[in-house]
Protein backbone atom coordinates (compact mmCIF):
# COMPACT_ATOMS: atom_id res chain seq x y z
CA UNK A 1 0.00 0.00 0.00
CA UNK A 2 1.20 3.50 -0.87
CA UNK A 3 2.34 5.90 1.82
CA UNK A 4 -0.53 7.85 3.43
CA UNK A 5 0.93 11.27 2.58
CA UNK A 6 1.44 10.20 -1.07
CA UNK A 7 -2.22 9.21 -1.11
CA UNK A 8 -3.37 12.55 0.38
CA UNK A 9 -1.23 14.42 -2.20
CA UNK A 10 -2.81 12.38 -5.00
CA UNK A 11 -6.33 12.98 -3.65
CA UNK A 12 -6.77 9.26 -2.98
CA UNK A 13 -7.14 9.69 0.80
CA UNK A 14 -9.04 12.29 2.82
CA UNK A 15 -6.97 15.28 3.76
CA UNK A 16 -7.98 18.82 4.45
CA UNK A 17 -5.75 20.34 1.77
CA UNK A 18 -5.01 24.05 2.27
CA UNK A 19 -2.48 24.56 -0.50
CA UNK A 20 -1.10 22.60 -3.42
CA UNK A 21 1.22 23.38 -6.31
CA UNK A 22 3.32 21.20 -8.60
CA UNK A 23 5.95 20.60 -5.89
CA UNK A 24 4.28 20.56 -2.47
CA UNK A 25 1.03 20.10 -0.60
CA UNK A 26 -0.12 21.51 2.76
CA UNK A 27 -2.92 19.88 4.73
CA UNK A 28 -4.23 19.86 8.30
CA UNK A 29 -2.75 17.34 10.71
CA UNK A 30 -5.43 14.84 11.70
CA UNK A 31 -4.35 14.93 15.37
CA UNK A 32 -3.65 18.63 15.88
CA UNK A 33 -1.31 19.57 18.71
CA UNK A 34 -2.23 23.26 18.45
CA UNK A 35 -5.22 25.23 17.09
CA UNK A 36 -3.26 25.59 13.86
CA UNK A 37 -1.39 22.41 12.91
CA UNK A 38 -0.51 22.03 9.25
CA UNK A 39 1.82 19.60 7.50
CA UNK A 40 3.72 20.72 4.42
CA UNK A 41 5.08 17.87 2.30
CA UNK A 42 6.90 17.42 -1.01
CA UNK A 43 4.50 15.93 -3.57
CA UNK A 44 6.96 13.20 -4.42
CA UNK A 45 7.84 10.59 -1.84
CA UNK A 46 11.00 11.72 -0.06
CA UNK A 47 11.81 10.01 3.25
CA UNK A 48 14.38 12.30 4.77
CA UNK A 49 15.95 15.72 4.69
CA UNK A 50 19.12 14.17 3.25
CA UNK A 51 17.10 12.74 0.38
CA UNK A 52 15.44 16.10 -0.33
CA UNK A 53 18.77 17.93 -0.21
CA UNK A 54 20.16 15.40 -2.70
CA UNK A 55 17.24 15.62 -5.10
CA UNK A 56 15.63 19.09 -4.85
CA UNK A 57 17.22 21.26 -2.17
CA UNK A 58 15.48 24.43 -3.38
CA UNK A 59 12.14 22.88 -2.42
CA UNK A 60 13.15 23.12 1.23
CA UNK A 61 13.24 26.92 1.01
CA UNK A 62 9.91 26.91 -0.78
CA UNK A 63 8.36 24.73 1.92
CA UNK A 64 9.50 27.12 4.66
CA UNK A 65 8.28 30.14 2.65
CA UNK A 66 4.92 28.48 2.14
CA UNK A 67 4.71 27.73 5.86
CA UNK A 68 5.11 31.44 6.56
CA UNK A 69 2.47 32.39 3.97
CA UNK A 70 0.06 29.87 5.49
CA UNK A 71 0.78 31.19 8.99
CA UNK A 72 -0.09 34.67 7.74
CA UNK A 73 -3.22 33.48 5.97
CA UNK A 74 -4.34 31.59 9.08
CA UNK A 75 -3.75 34.60 11.31
CA UNK A 76 -0.98 33.15 13.49
CA UNK A 77 2.08 34.82 11.97
CA UNK A 78 2.08 37.94 14.14
CA UNK A 79 2.04 36.10 17.46
CA UNK A 80 4.52 33.47 16.27
CA UNK A 81 4.54 29.89 15.19
CA UNK A 82 6.76 26.83 15.42
CA UNK A 83 8.17 24.90 12.45
CA UNK A 84 9.39 21.36 13.12
CA UNK A 85 10.83 18.55 11.02
CA UNK A 86 11.18 15.24 12.84
CA UNK A 87 13.90 13.68 10.74
CA UNK A 88 14.68 10.02 11.45
CA UNK A 89 14.04 7.59 14.30
CA UNK A 90 15.83 9.48 17.09
CA UNK A 91 13.63 12.50 16.29
CA UNK A 92 10.48 10.37 16.50
CA UNK A 93 9.58 10.55 12.81
CA UNK A 94 6.49 8.39 12.42
CA UNK A 95 5.41 8.95 8.81
CA UNK A 96 8.20 8.07 6.39
CA UNK A 97 7.41 10.96 4.01
CA UNK A 98 9.26 14.15 4.90
CA UNK A 99 6.93 16.77 6.39
CA UNK A 100 7.25 20.20 7.93
CA UNK A 101 4.94 20.81 10.89
CA UNK A 102 3.52 24.32 11.26
CA UNK A 103 2.14 24.87 14.76
CA UNK A 104 0.51 28.02 16.01
CA UNK A 105 -2.45 29.65 17.67
CA UNK A 106 -1.40 28.97 21.24
CA UNK A 107 1.46 29.90 23.55
CA UNK A 108 3.99 27.06 23.47
CA UNK A 109 6.58 26.44 26.17
CA UNK A 110 10.12 27.59 25.44
CA UNK A 111 12.72 24.94 24.82
CA UNK A 112 14.16 23.79 28.20
CA UNK A 113 17.75 24.11 27.01
CA UNK A 114 17.17 27.72 25.93
CA UNK A 115 15.78 28.52 29.37
CA UNK A 116 18.88 27.05 31.03
CA UNK A 117 21.10 29.05 28.72
CA UNK A 118 19.19 32.23 29.56
CA UNK A 119 19.64 31.56 33.30
CA UNK A 120 23.36 30.97 32.86
CA UNK A 121 23.75 34.25 30.93
CA UNK A 122 21.85 36.26 33.58
P1 LIG B 1 5.84 12.82 12.73
O1 LIG B 1 5.78 12.33 14.13
O2 LIG B 1 6.18 11.73 11.72
O3 LIG B 1 6.70 14.05 12.57
O4 LIG B 1 4.39 13.37 12.42
C1 LIG B 1 3.42 12.67 11.71
C2 LIG B 1 2.16 13.49 11.79
O5 LIG B 1 1.28 13.02 10.80
C3 LIG B 1 1.43 13.37 13.13
O6 LIG B 1 1.27 14.68 13.68
C4 LIG B 1 0.09 12.73 12.76
O7 LIG B 1 -0.98 13.23 13.52
C5 LIG B 1 -0.04 13.06 11.30
N1 LIG B 1 -0.79 12.07 10.52
C6 LIG B 1 -0.58 10.73 10.51
N2 LIG B 1 -1.43 10.11 9.67
C7 LIG B 1 -2.17 11.11 9.11
C8 LIG B 1 -3.25 11.10 8.16
O8 LIG B 1 -3.67 10.08 7.64
N3 LIG B 1 -3.78 12.31 7.82
C9 LIG B 1 -3.34 13.48 8.39
N4 LIG B 1 -3.94 14.61 7.99
N5 LIG B 1 -2.33 13.52 9.29
C10 LIG B 1 -1.77 12.36 9.64
ZN1 LIG C 1 4.89 9.24 0.46
List keywords for this structure.
122 residues; alpha+beta; HIT family, subunit A; five-stranded antiparallel sheet; 5 strands; 34% helix; binds guanosine-5'-monophosphate; binds zinc ion
In short:
This protein is α+β, with helices and mostly antiparallel strands.
Could you tell me the CATH topology label: HIT family, subunit A
User: Care to count the β-strands?
Assistant: 5
- Uncertain residue segments: none
How are strands sequenced across the largest beta sheet? 1-2-3-5-4
Ordered list of secondary-structure elements with their pairings:
Layout: H1 4-9, E1 17-20, E2 24-28, E3 36-42, H2 49-73, E4 81-84, E5 100-104, H3 112-121
Antiparallel strand pairs: 1-2, 2-3, 3-5, 4-5
Plain-language structure description:
The protein is of the alpha+beta class and 122 residues long. The chain contains three helices and five strands. The protein has one domain (4-121): HIT family, subunit A, CATH 3.30.428.10. It has a five-stranded antiparallel β-sheet. Strand 1 and strand 2 form a beta hairpin. Bound molecules: guanosine-5'-monophosphate and zinc ion.
Amino acid sequence: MRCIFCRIVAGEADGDILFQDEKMTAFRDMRPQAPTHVLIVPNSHVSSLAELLDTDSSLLVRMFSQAHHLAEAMGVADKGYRLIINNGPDAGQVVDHLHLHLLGGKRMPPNRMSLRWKDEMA
